[in-house]
Amino acid sequence: MPPVTALEVEEKLGLEKSPVSRWLKQAVAEGMEYSDDGYDPFGLTGRRLSKPLVVAVHGACFAGGLEVALNGDVIVAAQGTLFGQPEVARGVFAFGGGVIRWLQRTSWGNAQVHLLTGDTLTAEQAYRIGLVQEIVAPPDVMDRGFAIASTIANAAPLGVRHSLAVSRAAIYEGPLAAAEKMAKLRAEIVDTEDAAEGVRSFLEKRKGNYLGR
Question: Which residues pair with 61 in a beta bridge?
Answer without folding.
Answer: 83
